[in-house]
Amino acid sequence: MTRPRITLDVFSDFVCPFCYLEVPELDALEERFGDVVAIRWHAFELRPEPEPTLDPDGDYLHDTWERAVYPMAAERGMTLRLPRLQPRSRLAHEASAWARTQEALRPGADGAMRTALFRGFFEESLDLADPEALVREAQTLELDGQALRQALAQGNFRQEVRIDQQTARELGIGGVPGLRFSLDGEHAGVLEGAQPRRQLFLAMERLLDAMR
């Protein structure tokens, strides 16, 4: 099977509502251009330790949600609720990385876990920093919860998350979602923030023109 010549690396955080809001746009991109583009998701902790997390009752979050999140959610046909807590996301990223290793046993595990974590946090205030909450999500998806529990306890995927973070810094990505396009392995541009579908399609069309 020929590998797609275009790669889209998506740097995101599970506590970022705009990353969740970008999912249907990326799904549409994959549906339209899936034979020529490979989409790869990467971890980006917005507030890694020791940086303080946001106050879930603070003015900043409430203002941001009223001004930008709720209107974009309505526009994109999604249901989001301001979470009751603002946990650190490192363990959630580790759980997502673990799920990618389960693809052979459970095809679609990668996307299913990513969706479950986004939806759990932004619709049900799932505590992304609670290992047992992550294990329950895995079990709901018929994944091996005990294997995930052990992987989180041992930090088996911690370095992978750190490498993603370092890669984002090297690319100059400071906000999420960060979308990095590559053509034949060469850097072809970065978009930051939740992009409308038409902008993603335009970026793809430009790369396709460069291939001709």
Automatic annotation (TrEMBL):
Membrane spanning stretches: none
The organism's superkingdom is given as: Bacteria
Identify the Pfam families for this entry: DSBA
What are the protein's GO molecular function terms? isomerase activity; oxidoreductase activity
Protein keywords = Isomerase
Looking at the record, the residues that make up the DSBA-like thioredoxin domain are 7-198
Q: Which InterPro entries match?
A: DSBA-like_thioredoxin_dom, Thioredoxin-like_sf
Name assigned to this protein = Putative DsbA family dithiol-disulfide isomerase
